[in-house]
Amino acid sequence: MDSSGKEREAVQLMAEAEKRVKSSHSFLRGLFGGNTRVEEACEMYTRAANMFKMAKNWSAAGNAFCQAAKLHMQLQSKHDSATSFVDAGNAYKKADPQEAINCLNAAIDIYTDMGRFTIAAKHHITIAEIYETELVDIEKAIAHYEQSADYYKGEESNSSANKCLLKVAAYAAQLEQYQKAIEIYEQVGTNTMDNPLLKYSAKDYFFKAALCHFIVDELNAKLALEKYEEMFPAFTDSRECKLLKKLLEAHEEQNSEAYTEAVKEFDSISRLDQWLTTMLLRIKKSIQEDGEVEGDLK
Asked: From the record, what ranges are coiled-coil (predicted)?
């Protein structure tokens, strides 16, 4: 069947489902199994939703899954209701990001009520990603990553919690909330430095924390660097630590060329990502003499 045929059939199913729901409310529903009618309507809405999906009518699919979710709730099937809300959210994601968030939030309410915090955390991440990419509201994305990290921590899923926290730290630093970023990078660095599998990443977190310190205050960055080397001796031999020392020296001497040179050399071996480039440029700005045009890093 072609997509317009699927869509026609879906529309008929929706109308049929609505009739069942209405008749389940009738005076005689107690005598003639009102619940059975609601169950049938539920099934019809779900079938209609899947047909709309095949026809790529995402809004209609989202709406049909939503109707099914509400009926599942009426039938006291919390789990099925939450699943339908998630299906609705995934359909709406392709057409109406805000509506997708509303459906996912409805699912999260049910899951947290049932004590299913790990799955609630997962859906908070999906919402955060919609805020990141579709709605570009970074403050709201941060809030959902934080909520997700909280739930993961409560369930002892520390590596999942750390992933969310690192997202929060990266955004916080971009928004110039350096103190918040520093706390997270130091916390995650400290948590990972004793783990043989994750030890390698700890140097990145201490490096990022030091850069955030550096933007705020050079002396703080020096003190932080000493602290990190003491806590995590492997940091001293890392290229990141050596770069920081060169940058601090160049900053002290107000030597813009030496700063750029050190960054170039580091970049030739480990490519700098967008975040690091942004932070290093913010530090470089504070070196530049009055009226000097801002040079690039590379």
From this structure: 128-188
